[in-house]
Design a protein that fits this description.
alpha/beta; 8 strands; binds 2-phosphoglycolic acid
């Protein structure tokens, strides 16, 4: 089955990098059309550029965040309609870096998911436990609490399970942990919120470890940070399924 492979550039890159990245990716995709869904989430100022540069390919783009509000006096924010205008089809919501750095609450995240769905964007809703929760065997409890942001949500939502201790650390979660946790998340969202959500894994994914993660039955794709900053590396990951 086709997988969803998402690149999260975070606050990295430049227009020059975006140009060479798209040139390389387009050439690779032309030579071997991708069988998986590829999504690139660059910093917001480059969305329009990527939308143009990747037109004519099946590679989609997305934003790394959107506002919880429809419009108005929110200096520095970008609403879901603007993401749509820029050609975005997806939006990452609730990444652990935003939860920590911008104190995003579960209610704020519900509002962001709602805004995204109202603008026909596909939210990629991120959840994940800190190391202390993991070591204390509290992962499922933490994730269950984070999933309350899905209360009242209907529509297509992708969930990314990203253990905070695995992000940018080189410490990838074990296949057993990924499989059991993603299966738990899938069951919980079905039972509690009546949602069927594809599950992505994120946290120190590389071209080397991607094949074994993508064979896990509960995993429908990957959310890739550091290793997605290089077009060839991201391409290799996307070919791993
Ligand atoms: P990483 O980041 O691949 O660099 O660990 C993943 C993420 O934060 O989405």
């Amino acid at each position: 089955m086709s997988k969803i492979i998402v690149a999260n550039w975070k606050m990295n890159g430049s227009l020059e990098m975006a140009y060479s990245y798209c040139t390389s990716l387009k050439a690779l995709a032309k030579a071997t059309p991708p069988s998986n869904t590829l999504v690139i989430c660059p910093p917001a100022p480059y969305l329009t550029f990527l939308n143009g540069a990747l037109s004519g390919t099946c590679i989609s783009i997305g934003a790394q965040d959107c506002s919880a509000h429809e419009k108005g006096a929110f200096t520095g924010s970008m609403n879901a309609a603007m993401v749509n205008d820029a050609g975005g089809r997806y939006v990452i919501i609730g990444h652990s870096e935003r939860r920590q750095q911008f104190q995003e609450s579960p209610e704020t995240l519900t509002a962001k998911i709602t805004q995204a769905l109202d603008q026909s964007l596909i939210p990629i809703f991120c959840i994940g436990e800190h190391l202390a929760d993991f070591e204390a065997g509290q992962t499922n409890k933490t994730l269950t609490a984070q999933l309350t942001s899905l209360k009242g949500i209907t529509g297509n939502v992708i969930i990314a399970y990203e253990p905070v201790w695995a992000i940018g650390t080189g410490k990838v979660a074990s296949p057993d942990t990924i499989q059991s946790t993603c299966a738990f998340i899938q069951e919980t969202v079905k039972k509690t919120y009546n949602l069927d959500c594809p599950l992505l894994y994120g946290g120190s994914v590389t071209p080397e470890n991607a094949p074994s993660i993508l064979t896990l039955p509960a995993v429908q794709g990957l959310l890739v940070g550091g290793a997605s900053l290089n077009a060839e590396g991201f391409w290799a990951i996307s070919r791993a399924a």
